[in-house]
Design brief:
By secondary structure, the chain is mainly alpha-helical. It has eight helices and no strands. The relative contact order is 0.12.
């Protein structure tokens, strides 16, 4: 093709048709420029298509993370609500005016004292932020995702601090009681019971168990409230993402 154009130019020059030669040269330049522009447009279209495909893939990953977070939040709310109901049942034993410290101890031992970590699936949004590809997400949706991540981090941090406080009480309590099953094991060990004198610590043990439950009551009620708010935010973000999916 290049040889063909060169031959035309040479013929025009050899025939002395200078005017036509310049017109032809200009036309050839215009064609080359148009060709370059078309090539650039095609290249840009291909790049945009790749970015769009990548963005759509991110949307799917985000939806998967949100689906898992929603299921986790719902199950955690139910778990905490059951534990708060059980605690309320425990509080009802104080309606009996003849309640003993030993009865309190037995009831407290049946309540859950397990620490529960709250964690969310933030790998996709973190990957977008770390790679700088967060700019692929429209501003409104981007801001919602970042705000949701902050809310998730807050509840994770708060629950971690609450668990640390409760664990501190449990650690001090363990020095008084050894383990919660020890009192039961010592029932048939008269000599050992006399040596360890665990029963002398009953008041401190009961107060320690009460403190743990009070701490959990405060912490889990707060977490339930925050998780309900997060569920609402997740649903809003899901709707925004679905609108962006092709």
């Amino acid at each position: 093709m290049i040889k063909f154009f060169r031959k035309i130019r040479q013929n025009l020059l050899s025939e002395g048709k200078t005017g036509k030669y310049f017109k032809y040269a200009i036309g050839e330049i215009v064609l080359v420029v148009i060709g370059i522009l078309i090539a650039l447009q095609i290249n840009n279209w291909n790049e945009n298509r790749k970015l769009e495909a990548k963005t759509q893939n991110y949307y799917q990953q985000l939806l998967e993370d949100l689906y898992k977070d929603k299921a986790f939040a719902k199950s955690t709310i139910k778990k905490f609500e059951r534990q708060r109901e059980t605690y309320q049942d425990y509080l009802k034993i104080f309606d009996d005016s003849k309640l003993s410290a030993n009865e309190m101890f037995q009831k407290l031992c049946k309540l859950n004292m397990e620490s529960f970590a709250i964690n969310f699936n933030t790998s996709t949004i973190e990957s977008l932020q770390n790679s700088g590809e967060i700019v692929l997400i429209p501003p409104v949706l981007r801001n919602r995702l970042v705000d949701l991540k902050r809310a998730q981090q807050k509840i994770t941090y708060d629950e971690s601090l609450d668990n640390r406080g409760k664990t501190g009480i449990a650690e001090r309590l363990s020095m008084l009681v050894g383990s919660l099953s020890l009192v039961e094991r010592l029932k048939n060990q008269e000599q050992l019971n006399e040596t360890l004198k665990v029963e002398q610590n009953t008041s401190e043990i009961v107060l320690g168990l009460e403190a743990i439950q009070d701490w959990m009551d405060f912490s889990e009620k707060k977490s339930i409230r925050l998780l309900i708010d997060i569920l609402k935010e997740i649903e809003l973000v899901e709707e925004l993402i679905k609108k962006e999916i092709n």
